[in-house]
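Researcher: Quick test of sequence recovery. Tokens follow.
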């Protein structure tokens, strides 16, 4: 975590956006995840709690540069992109935060990135991993210190290929796989490279079907998996 925070500070200083804040003893950092709505239990609440714990730990070590305490400004995107946009604009224009930390959903992070970029507000994405959030956009104020969704798909199939004997198969082409995915940007990015990599190793794809993340009953999908 220390390395990530140091990198974060270097970026912030280089961007030159801290000048009005660093003269004070406290620095505001917005923390926004899906605290309510369909994505709350899926990971939004956990993301918020983890982010706040990390900031508390940093403050316990003396804060930024052992001089400035971090003051979290919490926000709830309500699992809704439109709400997230309004909250982002409020955090930037009213709370005057120089940094927005968080976002669980890639579908929510994608429209927020250009808003933060336009306003020269650092957007530090903690979870949303869809390639679409950043790919080909050359942003200078948006960061995501983790793997992309496409890498999830590639590595998952590579794992099967590398462990083909342990799984009881002779060749990768003997393996049958079913691909089910949440039909938003994150799920689609994982699904796409999963299928590409499976084709590379000539694995048999017996099912390829997405589902709505708001769905409360996936029994029909489970039956299809059993039938496949």
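Model:
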């Amino acid at each position: 975590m220390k390395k990530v925070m140091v990198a974060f500070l270097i970026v912030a200083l280089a961007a030159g956006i801290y000048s009005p804040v660093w003269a004070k003893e406290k620095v505001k950092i917005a923390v926004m995840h899906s605290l309510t709505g369909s994505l709350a239990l899926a990971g939004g609440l956990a993301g918020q709690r983890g982010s706040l714990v990390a900031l508390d730990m940093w403050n316990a070590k003396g804060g930024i540069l052992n001089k400035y305490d971090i003051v979290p400004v919490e926000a709830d995107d309500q699992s809704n992109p439109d709400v997230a946009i309004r909250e982002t604009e409020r955090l930037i224009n009213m709370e005057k935060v120089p940094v927005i930390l968080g976002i669980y959903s890639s579908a929510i992070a994608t429209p927020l990135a250009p808003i933060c970029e336009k306003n020269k507000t650092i957007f530090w994405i903690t979870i949303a991993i869809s390639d679409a959030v950043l790919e080909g956009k050359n942003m200078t104020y948006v960061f995501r210190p983790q793997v992309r969704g496409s890498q999830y798909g590639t590595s998952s199939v590579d794992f099967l290929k590398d462990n083909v004997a342990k799984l009881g198969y002779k060749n990768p082409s003997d393996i049958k796989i079913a691909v089910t995915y949440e039909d938003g940007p994150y799920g689609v990015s994982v699904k796409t490279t999963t299928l590409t990599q499976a084709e590379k190793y000539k694995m048999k794809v017996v099912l390829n079907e997405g589902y709505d993340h708001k769905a409360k009953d996936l029994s029909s999908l489970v039956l299809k998996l059993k039938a496949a």
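The longest strand covers residues 26-33.
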